[in-house]
């Protein structure tokens, strides 16, 4: 049965995963992160208390 011969498709399978894991991950990692967590103010502000005039 020729479909069980791993010779023709196994190399294509491995090379496609090499392309996927090496080249595409570098391209994805080069995108800029728009929500940079280091640029935010880390000081937590106290919330203002509510004024309840009927109490």
Automatic annotation (TrEMBL):
Membrane-spanning segments: 6-26
Domain of life of the native organism: Eukaryota
InterPro entries attached to this UniProt entry: ATP8_metazoa, ATPase_protein_8
Cellular component aspect of the GO annotation: mitochondrial membrane; proton-transporting ATP synthase complex
Alphabetic keyword roster: ATP synthesis, CF(0), Hydrogen ion transport, Ion transport, Membrane, Mitochondrion, Transmembrane, Transmembrane helix, Transport
Membrane topology term: Single-pass membrane protein
GO molecular function terms listed in the Swiss-Prot or TrEMBL record: proton transmembrane transporter activity
One Gene Ontology biological process: proton motive force-driven ATP synthesis
Chief location bin: mitochondrion
Short name of any one Pfam family annotated for the protein: ATP-synt_8
Location(s) in or outside the cell: Mitochondrion membrane
Similarity-based family: Belongs to the ATPase protein 8 family.
Protein's name in the database: ATP synthase complex subunit 8
Gene this chain is encoded by: atpase8
